[in-house]
Amino acid sequence: MEKLADIGVFGGSGFYKFLDDIKEVKVETPYGMPSDSLFIGKIGSHKVAFMPRHGRQHTILPHLINYRANVWAMKEVGCKRVISPCAAGSLQKHVEPGHFVICDQFVDWTDGRKSTFFEGPVVTHPSAAETYCPELRQLAIDTAKELGITVHEQGTVVVVNGPRFSTKAESKFFTAQGWEVINMTAYPEAYLVKEADMCPLNISLITDYDAGLVGDVPPVSHGEVIEVFNNNIENLKKLLFTMIERISAENDKCDCRNTKSNSQLH
């Protein structure tokens, strides 16, 4: 396929509406159909492919997303970097609703998701020790600070299967581990991006305190999550558009592009 974009963005089903001259591209993949079409536009010198990971009408639940097809589609149109903003809950009191967290680690608490492109016959064991691209992480942090957005420079996101939220007991356990963020989509999305030799970036937009946090916050509701997310959508748009304009043309300052070759047994 013709190389149509160099940067991909998951989530933010309405972000492509802020761009002019949008081109809708449908991509078929070996893993089935993606969540939606890719919507391709231009930010600065970059062509950017947006995909709403839940579908444009938000009809696909987190545990039913075809993550492999979504990531494969980004690779197929030429993306070298993929940014994944997501709504997330806080597990620590100092990480407040409205804050952004640029995660540097994840914990997989999901079940049954197709989470790798490597199913043989080549024996391959990609490392997840440092999944998120250090170059993109630093750029996101610096840009957020410049824009006056409260940002946490690191954090661990625990990814639960969904569609249900955590019990208080589960949430208290996650908090006790010292993890900062809880979400339903961050895995295997970012890890698959890394497997595909692209640079992954997580931007967690904190919408609520999780149910078991110190035992003194009310249970989360979907409505509250959406309200906080919508209130902060302008900050997220400013961060994405500003940092994308500043991304260098080549991703030669990190080793993300060599993930597959570095992980094969010789």
Structural commentary:
The chain is an alpha/beta fold and 266 residues long. The protein has a single domain, classed as Rossmann fold (3-Layer(aba) Sandwich), CATH 3.40.50.1580. It is 27% helix and 21% strand. Strands 1, 2, 3, 4, 5, 6, 7, 8, 9, 10 and 11 form an eleven-stranded mixed β-sheet that branches. Helix 1 packs parallel to helix 4 (186-195) and helix 2 (134-146) packs across helix 6. The chain is globular and about 55 Å long. The model has no long low-confidence stretch (mean pLDDT 91).
Helix and strand arrangement:
Blueprint lengths: L6 E4 L12 E3 L12 E6 L2 E6 L15 H10 L4 E10 L9 E2 L3 E5 L24 H13 L4 E2 L3 E5 L7 H9 L4 E3 L2 H10 L3 E11 L12 H10 L1 H14 L12 H5 L3
Parallel strand pairs: 1-4, 1-5, 5-11, 6-8, 7-9, 9-10
Antiparallel strand pairs: 2-3, 3-4, 5-10, 6-11
The CATH class, by name, is Alpha Beta
- CATH level-3 fold name: Rossmann fold
User: What is the distance, rounded to the nearest whole angstrom, between the alpha carbons of the first and last residues?
Assistant: 30 Å
What's the pLDDT, averaged over the residues? 91
The helix/strand order is EEEEHEEEHEEHEHEHHH
Shape: globular
Main beta sheet strand tally, sense and closure: 11 strands, mixed
Residue runs with pLDDT of under 50 for 5 or more positions: none
In percent, how helical is the residue content?
25-40%
Our Rg estimate from Cα atoms comes to 18 Å
CATH superfamily: Nucleoside phosphorylase domain
Discrete helix count: 7
**CATH architecture descriptor name:** 3-Layer(aba) Sandwich
Structural class assignment: alpha/beta
* Portion in beta strands: 15-25%
Counted beta strands: 11
